[in-house]
Amino acid sequence: MQSLNDLRVKIDSIDAELIKLFEERMNISREIAEFKEKNGLSIYDQDREKKVIENNISHVSDELKVYVEEFVQCIMRISKKIQSKSTNVK
Fold it and tell me: Is pTM beyond 0.90 here?
């Protein structure tokens, strides 16, 4: 069994990667907002959000599905906030 410290080091490494990926995702989200603004599209796309959630929960065990759904919804909520702040799209 690994020590608590070893396990925490692994968690810290995973967290660092998650933050890096989160920042990358938000940067792409800004680009999407610019596209939507130029093309007269709304930030909120119910069908897209449903597909994103379904796709992501399909990759995890049943016991984690509800948590992954919550996680993805949170990320999308933040993404929509960033899109709203970076453009005039609502």
Answer: no
